[in-house]
Design brief:
Length: 635
């Protein structure tokens, strides 16, 4: 950890959850205060995901206090909730390296710690994974407890519903904790709900309930069918008394809650009461995202990942301060251009799976709310929903982060491409994204989309090209049009160019040469330009640079020209080299009898870890100095 401004009483002595469990339960609120302070202090200087982790501090402490981790499994969903978990499980002294090259991973990962039960860089997988572990424990005859912690919107993902559906019919003793931070704790937590929570989690009540059911089984009065009928009757009575119903009770999963997710002592009591109960069960807790830090509580969206900030004043550093004019973020060019196009074309609608701010679709959402749809963490649904609108005459711009689009692969094929529907799939965060690591790098989209018929796949060199491609994509009869672009800023300050169409499947010659041809796709081409600019005046005329613009259809005119004129060719792409632009060029050259020496530059056949984009490009040999070295080697 960085130097602490105040001395903690408990946290420095907690090197594992076993140390935590030696404390009295009355001491846990102070542990929570210290843990929350640690997270705020560290993230003020080493940016990361703040609000989500603050919201589950008490839940994290209670879980590790009640359960025998790491033997018992805690499966986190949406891993950016797990900073407190990292600190309590022996990584406090290294937490200052979180998300840095060679440091702690941004999300839980089993190879980093035995306390990290599963990889959780994306959402909605916890219930399925935890169910698998619970079944494994049962088949191995182990008494291991398994807990899935799902929240922060992850319950809207289709996989979570698939998991809970299977949990209802598969023998298991799993506990699902639904961390509901969609609203503040209100009156629904008290009154009859709180009374029934105390009753249904009371040890005496549950022991009596269990003994009675065993007797009925032994006497042959209660079989499995009748047991489920009694559970349904019990759940119906609870719904009648509380005037509430929920899907879990309808699936014969025992439901407890809602309860206050910031009362650590009550959480410990409830968890102790229900942890040994047989069968699948769900505990519903209400939490406040950003809890304990006023700026984060008031604006959880901004403080989800706020960057560096002054922990005393809440001022976000380098935000809103005068600065030299710089290029915009690609996402903002997308958001501004989408609104501009939508105002001209009444058929355009916007769709995003829980990322309106992240992809800047909130710009259109604010101006045209009736034509903008946030569907929650449900990427497959986002694509098929867009397909349905496209089928009946609307023109959806569906914006999904590249790495999350992997979850909608089947939907792209069956619900868009087969019918050649007019819709635009915008892949934000394509290529290496930096500190979020391998679960978030947009490494695979070029390779997995290229084999699909009826797709147009394009990537803009810079911000004006993104505008032109978006304008092109919404022209009539374009079919399913994919535009991919990276996280972060581009290279053009004055980006508001006129909206005009780009010829589909046509690239462009940026710089002519006579000995080596470099073919790039997308903004990674600016690294090529830097590499060539850094060559001597004598060498520069020998290097040609083509911006391919489109992976599909390829510009065959350019490729014939390159095959005929050049014996040395380099391809550069911000995606895996297996199956992407380089592979496509190799296939073309082989099919047409050209035999150049071809060197492919891109993301290697490995999962690239976390670090800054600059660091990762250097590691992957995709930066200007490495491109320059390859050019010189081929010359």
């Amino acid at each position: 950890m960085t130097e602490e401004p105040t001395k903690h009483q408990y946290l420095p002595n907690i090197n594992s959850p076993a140390d935590l469990r030696r404390l009295r339960v009355e001491e846990l609120p102070q542990v929570c205060d210290e843990l929350r302070h640690d997270i705020i202090h560290e993230l003020s200087v080493n940016p990361g995901h703040l609000a989500s982790s603050l919201g589950v501090v008490e839940l994290t402490v209670a879980l590790h206090y009640v359960f025998d981790t790491p033997y018992d499994r805690i499966v986190w969903d949406v891993g950016h909730q797990a900073y407190g978990h990292k600190i309590l499980t022996g990584r406090r002294d290294r937490f200052c390296t979180n998300r840095k090259l060679g440091g702690l991973r941004p999300f839980p990962f089993p190879t980093e710690s035995e306390y990290d039960a599963f990889c959780c860089g994306h959402a909605s997988n916890s219930i399925s994974a935890a169910l698998g572990m619970a079944v494994a424990a049962r088949l191995h005859g182990e008494q291991r407890q398994v807990v899935a912690v799902i929240g922060d919107g992850a319950m809207s993902g289709g996989l979570s519903f698939e998991g809970i559906n299977n949990a209802a019919s598969t023998p298991n003793d799993m506990l699902v904790i639904l961390n509901d931070n969609n609203k503040s704790i209100d009156d629904s937590v008290g009154g009859m709900n709180q009374y029934l929570l105390r009753l249904t989690t009371n040890t005496t009540y549950n022991n009596l309930r269990y003994r009675a059911s065993r007797k009925l089984f032994d006497w042959g009065i209660l079989n499995e069918k009748r047991r489920k009928s009694i559970i349904r009757f019990n759940n119906s009575m609870k719904s009648l008394l509380t005037h509430q119903q929920n899907m879990f009770e309808g699936m014969d999963i025992r439901y407890f809650g809602p309860t206050d997710g910031h009362d650590v002592i009550e959480l410990v009591r409830v968890l102790r009461a229900i942890k040994d109960m047989k069968g699948p069960k769900l505990l519903h807790v209400h939490t406040v995202k950003g809890k304990g830090y006023k700026p984060a509580e008031e604006n959880a969206t901004v403080w989800h990942a706020p960057g560096k900030f002054d922990e005393d004043t809440g001022e976000r550093l380098d935000v809103g301060k005068p600065a030299t004019k710089c290029p915009p973020r690609f996402q903002d060019v997308f958001g501004e251009t989408l609104l501009e196009l939508a105002q001209q074309n009444p058929q355009i609608v916007g769709v995003t799976p829980a990322m309106p701010t992240g992809c800047s679709m909130n710009i259109m959402m604010h101006a045209l709310p009736d034509r903008t749809f946030d569907v929650g963490i449900a990427e497959g649904h986002a694509v098929t929903f867009s397909g349905g609108m496209a089928k009946d005459g609307l023109l959806p711009f569906c914006n999904i982060y590249s790495s999350f689009m992997q979850r909608a692969y089947d939907n792209i094929i069956h619900d868009a491409a087969i019918m050649r529907l007019n819709m635009v799939l915008c892949l934000d965060r394509a290529g290496l994204v930096g500190e979020d690591g391998p679960t978030h790098h947009g490494a695979f989209d070029l390779a997995f989309l290229r084999p699909i018929p009826n797709l147009t796949i394009a990537s803009p060199y810079d911000e004006p090209e993104l505008r032109r491609l978006m304008f092109t994509a919404q022209q009539p009869d374009m079919g399913t049009f994919v535009i991919r672009y990276p996280r972060g800023r581009g290279s053009v300050v004055d980006w508001r160019c006129p909206l005009e169409a780009v010829p589909v499947g046509k690239g462009r010659l940026l710089r002519d040469g006579d000995r080596v041809a470099v073919l790039s796709l997308g903004p990674i081409g600016t690294e090529v330009a830097k590499a060539i600019d850094g060559l001597s005046d004598e060498i520069q005329p020998h290097v040609a640079h083509y911006d391919m613009r489109f992976l599909k259809p390829l510009d065959e005119e350019i490729l014939h020209e390159v095959g005929q004129r050049f014996s040395r060719v380099i391809t550069v792409e911000d995606g895996v080299v297996t199956g992407g632009l380089g592979s496509a060029v190799l296939e073309f050259m082989a099919d047409h009898g050209y035999t150049p020496t071809l060197h492919r530059i891109g993301i290697p056949d490995t999962f690239v870890e976390h670090g800054t984009v600059t660091q990762l490009r250097e590691i992957c040999k995709m930066d200007a100095p490495n491109i320059q070295r390859i050019i010189l080697k081929l010359l």
